[in-house]
Amino acid sequence: MRTIVRQGLAGVLSLLALLTALSAVPASAAPRSLTVTTDKGRVAGASADGVDRFSGIPYAAPPIGARRWQPPAPAAAWTGIRQATSPGQHCLQLGGDNGAGMSEDCLYLNVYTPSHRTNRPLPVMFWIHGGGFSYGAGETEDGSRIAEANNVVVVTINYRLGAFGFLDLPGLSKQGAGNYGLLDQQAALRWTQRNIGAFGGDASRVTIGGQSAGGHSVCALLASPPARGLFSGAIIQSGGCPSHTPEQAIARGKKYAAAASCSNASCLRAKPADELLADSADFVGGVLSGPLPVSGGPELPLPPSDAVRTGRAANVPLLIGHTRDEVRSWALPFARATKAQYERAVRIEFGTRADAVLAHYPFSKYGDSYTGTYAFSDVWGDSSSFYGLGGCQYHDLAGQAASRQPRTYFYEFDDPHPPVQGGLPAGFDPGASHGAEMPYLLPDAASQQMSPGQKQLSREMVRYWGSFVKHGNPATAGLAAWPSYRAGKYMSLLPGGESRARTSEAYSAQHQCAFWNSVDYDWLPVNPDQLAAQAGVSQS
Hints:
Blueprint: H1 2-24, E1 35-37, E2 42-44, E3 46-48, E4 51-58, E5 81-83, E6 90-91, E7 102-103, E8 108-114, E9 122-128, H2 144-150, E10 153-157, H3 162-166, H4 180-195, E11 201-211, H5 213-223, E12 233-237, H6 246-259, H7 265-270, H8 273-278, H9 281-284, H10 304-309, E13 318-323, H11 339-350, H12 354-360, H13 371-383, H14 391-402, E14 408-413, H15 438-441, H16 452-471, E15 489-493, E16 500-503, H17 504-510, H18 513-516, H19 528-534
Parallel strand pairs: 2-5, 6-7, 9-10, 9-11, 11-12, 12-13, 13-14, 14-15
Antiparallel strand pairs: 1-2, 3-4, 4-8, 8-10, 15-16
Helix pairs in contact: 2-16, 11-12
């Protein structure tokens, strides 16, 4: 009898222990269904490495036929379950798409969610890809690392590019001319507001972010009245606040129409998409002659830079920064420049201010076979001559934002030798060039080349960025303190646990901002190869 009682008691205790253990399992371990209901229908994703992925979800109707060069229209509903396991086709772009397929029918987005998460809605990072408003796609920038490490939801998007997204021409449309790509981004944000809750996200905590043209886009969205209320924070990585005036945009549009052998919008609208793409080489242009958002209309009443400067941009927490050697690779056309050719190019660009520039950046300071490249890298990087990207104007942009928003955080990515994809000219040191920080946040092939110290920096940056998405503040327990820019500090991001806050005065000294802030100059008006040709630099 005692044996039976003991066995029975043991069974009860075992059951209680099991129930206690189950109740102690954190809610984060609860699996989620891979079928989600959106406002247009159900989608089924796939799970891998602790992240659920939902790819190729339409957020707007295909911008084809009569919808070409029109604001995005609502996507059609579907019945049954739509398989969301393959990304949508890339938006049309010159130079290929790495085999992923291209189409005008390209307005799709991707959602990354942690496979195991709490029942509380999660903050959202809404990511806009770069590529000069002419190249790229959302699916090439993998949000899984940030989603899994920080327990946040990540959304990446496609948007119309090149002439399909940023053409301005009289008669093209009644609304949105020159800003179709920007309106696509806003349509994707509205989709996020309506649907992200079904994926475990919190629509009231959406942080928009982007690098390069994606960073330009973020600044434009900050300045766009129709985008107000669609996000609560912003990340600008190596992107400024440039825009075209309507006059500039229409002049570019007319030039494009002429290249396409058309005299009006009706002719362009009737052309096949592949012919329009083939005729767009000049419209896409180079690093300083490509498409930009167009200010002066309801989508963007003010140039984004003016909106930030005058306090008429959205006043939300801002994380902004750049790489130390942003423009070095773009200065390669000056690799063979002689001292005389370098000085001639500086005089072409800076006119009467050239002597002062040359006194601060003498050719003799850069003793290397790539002397002209390294010299112009510093000139352009410190002066922010590339659309205000990096350097002293960028520093001032952060200061203007911080004057109104105390949660403004500035950084410089200072890893001197980040991994590089593709070949480099023999002996050339690209430094921390434009885009060098991206593998540290969004995994790609270059991520596999990192040293242990660089992998540590990657982990730190993922946590900093995740903390900003979650709290509007990158401060993270166990990592170097990151004060606000209003406190006169910025973060120098370095490998091997060496990241540290430095003073604004140190930044200004490093980039010679006292000099650049004392002279009047414009952004570089031509692409580097054109300036090199004007100065007589050989490219052979």
